[in-house]
Amino acid sequence: MRISELVERTGVPLATLKYYLREGLLPSGEATSATRAAYGETHVRRVAVIRALTETVGLSVQKTRDVLQLIDHPEEDLVGMLGKAIEALPPNVTPDARADYPRARAVLEKLGQVYEPRFAAVAQLEHALAAAEAAGIPLDDERLAVYGPHIRAIAEFDVRNVPREPAAAVEYAVLGTAVHEPVLVALRRLAHQDLASRRLGPGRDATKSPRGKPPKAPSATKGRSWKKD
Amino acid sequence: MRISELVERTGVPLATLKYYLREGLLPSGEATSATRAAYGETHVRRVAVIRALTETVGLSVQKTRDVLQLIDHPEEDLVGMLGKAIEALPPNVTPDARADYPRARAVLEKLGQVYEPRFAAVAQLEHALAAAEAAGIPLDDERLAVYGPHIRAIAEFDVRNVPREPAAAVEYAVLGTAVHEPVLVALRRLAHQDLASRRLGPGRDATKSPRGKPPKAPSATKGRSWKKD
DNA sequence: TGAGCTTGGATAGTCATGGTATCCAATATT
DNA sequence: AATATTGGATACCATGACTATCCAAGCTCA
Q: Which of B120, B122, B100 has the alpha carbon at shortest distance from B111?
């Protein structure tokens, strides 16, 4: 297909596609002549991934390019790739191997995981913990005892499902880490709303302005029983 | 204290503090004279919260102001406040009550939660699910069956710990939702790295450059027993 | 008292991002 | 041949988050 069709298929303006081309996010189509190139389904998919990474995950165009290059040039070392990908993900904190991340270290020790200051995620965790502290809601032991195992279980599922084929594994690891984060975050927010509205009782309005029927009582929800504190 | 001291205490440049003042993120100190004002600990804390929200959570200055105003003017309706807060959080998708969010609806039905298109989080979830799909890693039933309950459990803990006092509850709900997200995300990334390095076997190097002894089994951690699901 | 420093308040400038818009010349297409 | 579409290059623009200056009205301390 020609680039004009790519515009139609993806809904992304021509000028923007050219921009992605320039920035190296999107490989140029196969040149069929001096002034013409053919694009394929891979390009359609690539554009979708670019938008997912930039719009939903919130990566900058530069970081998106880094991540895509990781996928395009997979190395055998999955763990190393994963590390590099995580480094590209927000929040953009650059790890300093010689720095000390006391909060992160304490947390990791409690979780029985290795504290490795070269991991970008350690610096990210430190940052996040400091922010929580600053906001007046530190991650105390009790909360960590809840968050830790559940997050670990989620991560175990993720890792269990890594494809065997190396290239696919890299793509899964890199994209999966990034792309499921917003899903998890949204699910938590929705669970908050669901629980809060049930807790504060049906009968009161569930939303700010719209007058919506408050979600019906906690009744039967998959047989789950939510004890209310 | 004078503003120059606030600069020292927070490490934020004067020009930036003035910017926050202008934008209404930071209340001005109590005027002691025509050209002098006194700042207190509340200001120090406020600046910390501003940085946490902008740097770590990734809010824009505008959205940060919205969130802070929510906290400063708490209403009794906690659920409504929570909804407004979530609306200010990234990704910035504005919910359309008349729109249909098919992916989000399907997920919520499977989870036994109410589908309410006015909730911003529903639109956010739809967005995230579409992005995951575009990236080639859709949230299939199996994954949802794992993510859902664990996230729910986390959210239950969060809701269980809402303070009783209304103003404190609003602050906890609004800040807690936002501020713990980066923590959860960082924990998942670290769990990925931990699991991946264990999986690809000790014996192989755990990171690209650093040589880290693979963590010992999750066994006993501080005598605390967190049952793993 | 007065020289110099610190403020608050206002205004303008800067830098990075993430696009948009144009122009052009070389083809395709009809 | 006439018209439309490309690729490639270049220039332009809007937003956001600061950052820098200016100024005049106080403080402060010798």
A: B122
Q: How crowded is residue A94: how many other Cβ atoms within 10 Å of its Cβ?
A: 8
Contact at CB, B77 and A136, closer than 8 angstroms: no
> What domains appear along chain B, each with residue ranges and CATH number?
1-56 (1.10.1660.10), 77-199 (no CATH)
Extract the tokens encoding A170: 């890299």
pLDDT of residue A65: 97
Is B135 in contact with B128 (CB distance < 8 Å)? no
Residue range A194-216: mean pLDDT, rounded: 56
Sign of CA dihedral A138, A140, A146, A152: positive
The answer to whether residues B75 and B81 touch, using CB atoms and an 8 Å cutoff, is yes
- Burial string for A176-203 (b: 16+ CB within 10 Å, else e) reads bbbbbbbbbbbbbbbbbbbbbbbbbeee
CA distance A13 to B192: 37
**Nearest-angstrom CA–CA distance, A127 and A145:** 20
Q: Which residue has the higher pLDDT, B13 or A206?
A: B13
B31 SS3 class: strand
Per-residue model confidence (pLDDT) at position B30 = 87
- List the structure tokens of A151: 């997050």
Inspect the interface and report whether the beta carbons of B134 and A51 lie closer than 8 Å.
yes
Mean pLDDT of A174-195: 97
Inter-chain residue contact B119 with A207, CB threshold 8 Å: yes
Three-class secondary structure of residue B200 per DSSP? coil
Q: What is the pLDDT of residue B138?
A: 96
Question: Which residues of chain A lie closer than 8 angstroms to B222, CB-CB?
Answer: 109-110
- CB contact at 8 A, B51 and B43: no
Q: What is the mean pLDDT of each run of 10 residues along chain B (229 residues)?
A: 93 96 93 85 96 95 96 90 94 89 97 95 96 95 98 97 92 95 98 91 46 38 37
Among the partner residues A51, A113, A184, nearest to B215 by beta-carbon distance: A113
Distance separating alpha carbons of residues A168 and A171, to the nearest angstrom? 5
Closest CA to A26 of A156, A12, A36, A35: A12
What's the alpha-carbon Rg for chain A, to the nearest Å?
Answer: 22
Amino acid at B9: R
Distance CA A52, CA B133 (A): 9
- Over range A162-169, report the average pLDDT: 92
Rounded distance between C-alpha atoms, residue B80 and residue B159, angstroms: 15
3-class secondary-structure state, position B181: helix
Q: Which nucleotides of C are covered by protein (CB under 7 A)?
A: 6-11, 17-22, 25-28
